[in-house]
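Suppose a colleague, Dr. K., hands you the sequence of a protein chain of 294 amino acids and asks what its three-dimensional shape might be. Before reaching for any lab equipment, you can write down a predicted structure in token form. Begin with the sequence itself:
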Amino acid sequence: MIELTPELTAKRDRLHEILCGYGSVAVAFSGGIDSTVVAKAARLALGDAAVAVTAVSNSLASGELAEAESLARLIGITHQVIRTREFDDPNYIQNAPNRCYFCKSELYTQLEARLTELGVSVIASGANTDDTGDWRPGMTAAAEHRVRSPLIEAAISKTDVRQLAKFWGLPTWDKPATPCLSSRIAYGLEVTPERVRQIDAAEQFLRDRGFRELRVRYPQPDAARIEVPTAELARLVEPALRDDLLRHFKSLGFKSVTVDLEGFRSGSMNAVLPVVSLSLSSSRSAPARLTSDP
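The predicted structure, expressed as tokens, is then:
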């Protein structure tokens, strides 16, 4: 176990106080590092009055539910699973830059309907202070549904989250961020179950070969753009792996496979947000503008 700095100790204690003040809580629990830390803190603060709830849909990557279940058992928190139906919403399918708003609205609406059943009065998210400086339409949905963000309330950053996870012995303290599969698809291209399954299988292929930080982006129909850290680019294009990769990706239905020489970077699709927003507001008939790479 590591030792916390006095500053982070104060933040941890403040987080505990905030959660105690809720009385009871349902944590929107993806199994990612942020919501895992909130679930752990909620269990410590509230005991059985804390519940973790994981949403399952086509946009959840393979293995993420099993990992969430394992983490909940480790923490000792009651764990519930619900199926969300954002793929039934045309607003979500059309994949405008505010797609995440409709996904989170679906999640929080379902959670609100289950508060009595779960025996809790507050919904909490894993948003941290770093999330306040990025494009996060899901936070608008959270505000509309009066979802609390205890990490933000305690002034806890992403770095703080990882330190707390390590302090509490959570095995995923250094887990790379794992946003939903739909986030890989360029704004303006429809999000479909078939496309997210295609992306999921492609990313799993790379994970099985030892890549941890990665994205398989979907910049245009039937095209894959791979992002891995620049230090791993050489390994990615070694002849044996490259040939195996191409065969597998083509078998998944990708007709074009490229490697991004800028390497892995979280949120790279957001680099085109001003152009995409303008395109969507003026016309739905300009796919080239919507799918151009940053």
